[in-house]
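User: Structure tokens for this complex, please. No commentary.
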Amino acid sequence: MNARTARQWMVPHEWMIKPMAQTEWISGKGLLVWLAEVFSALGTGLYLVSIFFALGSEFEVTAFWTGILGWIGVAVFKLPLHFLYLGKPWRFWRAFPPFSNAWRTSWFSRGIVFTIIFLGFAAVQLVLQGLIAYDVASGTGIDVANYIFMFLAGVCCVITSIYCGFAMSYCKSVPFWNTGLLPFVFLLMAVADGLALIMGVGLVTGEDVIPSAESATRILLIINALLIIVYLVNANYQSVTAELSVKELIRGRVAWVFWLGIVILGIVVPLVISIVSYFTGAEASAGLLVFAIICHTIGAFSLKYGVLKVGIYRPILPKGRAY
Amino acid sequence: MRWGMVINLAKCTRCHGCVAACRIEHFLPLRLTWPRLVALEVDDGFSVDVSTYPVRCNQCKEAPCVQVCPTEASYKREDGIVAVDHNKCFGCRYCVIACPYQNRTYLSRKRSVNYFPGHATTGFEKKGKDLYPHVPGTTEKCNFCMERIDAGLAKGLKPGIDREATPACVNTCQARALTFGDLDDPYSNVSKLIREKNGFVLHEEYGTEPSVYYIDYRLGGALSNKAPVDAQTGHHMQHLSTVYAPSKPKLAKKYED
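Assistant:
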């Protein structure tokens, strides 16, 4: 053990006096949480959008494959990534009732429980949707069952999408997250991600989902941009520590993630492509659409990264200067 | 009954005795510390005040860590102590982030190393593995030495009065800066101190109702609580200030070289 190592151990004390960023959910193994949350947003967004498109009879195949992709995003990426992050992964069952009643107070527990329930309902719904889409079976019974499971899975999907925001907004220790706006920022961004990705699915299936998805994306991106501005302005006036988080996000080391990832690639580029096609009356080319989808997806990764990265702890001690 | 602690900041000499006592009592792994001593300097332009805040788990009455724990591994005992069941914790670290006092530590495998890395385990560590095993992959924090309290109560002893039933850090504090007792008893030593010396808690606005109170002249306290100037700027503190070097990069660099 050398002197340098010894001094490094003293560093953690600084976070009690100075505003220091949380690292548990974004550094080292914490990157898994970030990735899990991104796939959660993409997966749930895709599924919610697939429900919307499944309600009509024109886009059954696209809705089916979009739903499948959403389900995969949650089941194959989100859950395993969360699982890998845990210190004792094989104890994951302890979060579920009847082994624990923590769901009454813990958003984390609620999230895990509803994610599993969502996957169950969505699996049944997607089987039914597949039968309808490919005309394997038809009839009022299947339609009704499809709608019932669609509703149940949809409700669970919204909770799966929103719980991460609630879990973070519960933390009084991190004022930047400690606001009721965060869950809605995440939910709307997830839906916008889903709308962007369904256009890609539409390109493959050949169904004409792009005009509807594009017009919805246009409105949602504008709402999202406004919501993010409101969120940042609100945080700026909320507390000194939250203000520091905002500064870090727009002017600090994470600024490139915010301006390039969230603003330019995540919002401006897809919005410009969408608005140009609206005013010219011509549909964007497939290449341009794929570009917009990629940009939007980068925006989804950037949003979660930025928000997690600038989560700064409020110091526990009164104003002072650390040694 | 609700166990609580009062920390007199004017008396603390930052000797790190409480930290050492805790380490020995709980056989803490090398890179894990339950109580911490935070050095704080307040400079108003004319004079400089130096304080040391001994911080540890506040054993909150409305503990956010208990509420967020997805496995109920963090739980609240009837006597107000917030404990962690290491057989239930699955290491999600939500409690580490949710704790407004930042007093929880995740025991990673990186942290759980030998006292002398690359060498054989010491006898002390071997004993610790039998008597007080720490589980890597779970979260740890101060528990007010609940084992001592339970064993002491079983013998009819009074925590805060009888040493055998009192937390190790309180016993070892040579300046008697730490006092332990029952917060629900208005005549207990801690209740009297809080009343008479205007005890305060950290971040009252969170509504967590901590069980650790502080006495200081600056925040809600009386001026008579102020430590003598000599004690604030003693040479031992000057020396220790160099240990907390990170905010003085040039000094840190000098020592590094």
